[in-house]
Amino acid sequence: MKLPVVAAAFAAAFIATSAQAQDVSAGERSWNKCRACHQIGEGAKNLVGPQLNGLFGRHTGAVEGYSYSSANKGANITWDEAVFAEYIKDPKAKIPGTKMVFAGIKNDKEIADLTAFLKQFGKDGKKM
Ligand code: HEC
């Protein structure tokens, strides 16, 4: 009879550990740095920058109706966690000529948290 309790405790510990590795609410605070230029979520529109729904797995320059620089459009990158981490540290180093004016986020933990926040949103802007 004790087994389910043990299993639940184990699951709780596991969830706590992964939440510590990537903290969505901290990522949401970090997203404040992007909000002047980007939207995400249901009904997200292109602003100064393209909407960022379903970013991971998306190709650079893929948002319809957004006027990318040729640098971004031609970067030929598929966004995954590793590429995104490199990019967001220093956008102009990863995509020379990008029109994204952003100094970058240098802290790996903050990048991981921001990634967790962004990953919640599917192509349609709904949380997955
Ligand atoms: C000052 C405005 C501004 C801020 C702040 C900003 N961006 Fe951008 N971002 C842009 C613009 C403009 C582009 C399009 C770049 C181009 O076409 O060269 C872009 C492009 C991107 C792309 C490439 C999208 C694609 O479809 O290829 C990603 C990813 C991105 N931004 C993520 C972020 C994140 C995450 C943040 C916050 C940490 C952020 N940006 C902050 C303006 C901004």
TrEMBL record:
Protein's UniProt keywords contain Metal-binding: yes
TM region(s), chain numbering: none
Pfam families: Cytochrom_C (PF00034)
Secreted found in the keyword field: no
SUPFAM superfamilies: Cytochrome c
Cytochrome c domain mapped to chain residues: 22-122
Residues spanning the signal sequence: 1-21
Sorted UniProt keywords: Electron transport, Heme, Iron, Metal-binding, Signal, Transport
PROSITE patterns: CYTC
PANTHER family, alphabetized: CYTOCHROME C
Protein name stated in the entry: C-type cytochrome
Species annotation: Bosea vestrisii
Lineage: Bacteria, Pseudomonadati, Pseudomonadota, Alphaproteobacteria, Hyphomicrobiales
